[in-house]
Amino acid sequence: MKFKALTAIAALLAAPAFAGGADDDTLVLNGEIEMTTKVAAPAHMAETGIDEIISGWHFRSDETQQLQTDDFENQGMIFVDQGLETWQTVDGSEGKSCASCHEGPESMEGVAASYPKWNEEAGELRTVQMQVNDCRENRMGAKPWKYDAGVAINVEALIASQSRGMPVNVAIDGPVAAAWEAGKELYYTRTGILELSCASCHEENYGNYIRADHLSQGQINGFPTYRLKNAKLNGVHSRFKGCVRDTRAETYSPGSEEFIALELYVKSRANGLSVEGPSVRN
Amino acid sequence: MASGVKPRVKVPKKAAAGDAITIKTLISHKMESGQRKDKEGNLIPRSIINRFTCDFNGQNVIDVDLAPAISTNPYFEFEAMVPEAGDFKFTWYDDDGSVYEEAKSVAV
């Protein structure tokens, strides 16, 4: 009898979680960095019907959320440490490491918040990984990393971790306007046998269940993301690929022009949220 | 030695005598179960941390046997009573015979 009563209470307490929506918890890292995880949507999202953008953190269970609050428990930080080793390791014909020019990774503060970004010299839109590879090829004389390769993601996570707590702020006008439009087009294009677009799930149905899992708004402010399901860091493009594959379509490749444009558009939907990378998700 | 192994430990620097403190430990290790096969269908040999111990001033606090089903990067969190100032010694034993050690001092 007592057991039954307890179960009933537990069910009542757990009820909000079953509703599937975002919760009202506050994310504070290591007891010091307070994160903005809910904020008014940027102006360009006026027509989407979303007036508040919400970090994917809010859609996860309390246990998963807690892992991200402490750098010791956040297993993504293991990969940040590995990224730091790579940062300090000399590679290529010029005898340089990242640290030779950029010194400590602290010099990367703010980078993750503003990328993908237009590179004036090259005349192209660049992601963090492209910029790192450009450095490797042209300054270090090293081989570029394959897009979303483990080592590349580790360094991206190291760079992202320097901006944690800073609001995402990518430019969407000027020279990147065309790419941004292309990304938006992709976001709303239905693909695959299931005929789903990004918006079908992450705009029209966030907060609802997709099979056993909560749909979030698909914000990428927390990338690279440590996923419990594969116990490693996951890159944005690899995640895009996974999503497109799930619509049962042929996907674009990580590092392709399409995904770079999509990254810019999706990132711009997070303008105002704190950079969380590396975040923890399931 | 398995690659990329790095032990990490979080212990409060100071504690009151007789207090129970929370200790967190994590070791990055791939914990290959020995059940998986590679692309050619050959079994990947088992490579796990099989034992973890923690001692305080020579006295054992915790001694854990680990089994192949334990996930990558095993994490342990436990409480220990600190009767006096001293050193915590943490030891992880790898299948391949490697031993990884870490020590932390606690002031009272």
Task: Indicate the mean pLDDT of chain A.
Answer: 89
Helix content of chain B: under 10%
Number of strands of chain A: 11
Low-confidence stretches of chain A: 6-18
**Main sheet: strands, sense, barrel of chain B:** 4 strands, antiparallel
Taking Cα atoms only, what radius of gyration of chain A do you get, to the nearest Å? 20 Å
Mass-distribution shape of chain A: globular
Number of strands of chain B: 7
In CATH, the architecture of chain B is Sandwich
Give the structure's gist in a few sentences.
Helices cover 39% and strands 10% of the residues of chain A. Chain A has 282 residues and is of the alpha+beta class. Mean pLDDT of chain A is 89; it is low at 6-18.
Features:
heterodimer; A: 282 residues; alpha+beta; two-stranded antiparallel ribbon; 11 helices; globular; B: mainly beta; 4-stranded antiparallel sheet; 7 strands
